[in-house]
Amino acid sequence: MKPTLFLALIFIVTACSTPEPRSPIQQTKPKTEPTSVQINKELLLKETELIERYIANQSELVFNTSPSGLWFAASDVETIPPQKGTRIDFEYEVFDLNNTRVYDRKTIGKQSYYVNEQPIMFGLKEALFILKEGASGTFLLPSILAYGVLGDQNKIGSNTPLVIQLKITNIETANK
User: Is residue 72 scored above 80 in pLDDT?
Assistant: First the structure.
């Protein structure tokens, strides 16, 4: 019985000792690859330069900027955002920054958007909220507000800033 008690005592003493920290087998090297944040910042700077060049060639239009980075030239601007469920009817066409038409009004057709009830391109959504009924405007969307990294999987490539010519044809306010 004594050897069993002795072994149990040794087991308890050794089991209660604190573990020794082990050093890593392989040291990690600092990352030299750019992070996605760095890549996006560089992309935004490049796109901003392209948009500013585009604006410089549009002497007849005066552009403003929204906090999200949307550039717009419009005369009849709305300051009160529409209520959820409001239907906005509109027409638009899409150009690249070289003024090459990507999609025309006929191809896109008349569109309706129910505020905050269906998905829509973020930059276009913001543009719809800027214009009053019957108004039209020119909107410059950095790629992050347009189709982003993927493009539209058709005519708009990856990371492509867009020009949108937009006209609001009707706004039907939602009933509370």
Answer: yes
Q: What is the value of pTM for the model shown?
A: 0.78
Judge contact between 86 and 53, C-beta under 8 A: no
Least confident of 20-29, 53-62, 111-120, 167-176: 20-29
Both tokens of residue 32? 């030299």
Q: At 82, list the tokens.
A: 């529409």
How far is the C-alpha of 155 from the C-alpha of 134, rounded, in Å? Answer: 29
Residue 114 is assigned to a structural domain of this protein: yes
Render pLDDT for 111-169 as a digit per residue (tens, 0 to 9).
Answer: 999 998 989 999 999 999 999 999 999 999 999 999 998 999 999 999 999 999 999 99
Domain count, the chain: 1
Task: Report the b/e string of 101-130 with b at 16+ CB within 10 A.
Answer: ebbeeeeeeebebebeeeebbbbbbbbbbb
CA distances from 71 to 67, 98, 125, 137, 148 (A): 10, 16, 13, 10, 16
Owning domain of residue 100? 38-172
Kindly report the CATH number assigned to the domain that includes residue 70.
3.10.50.40
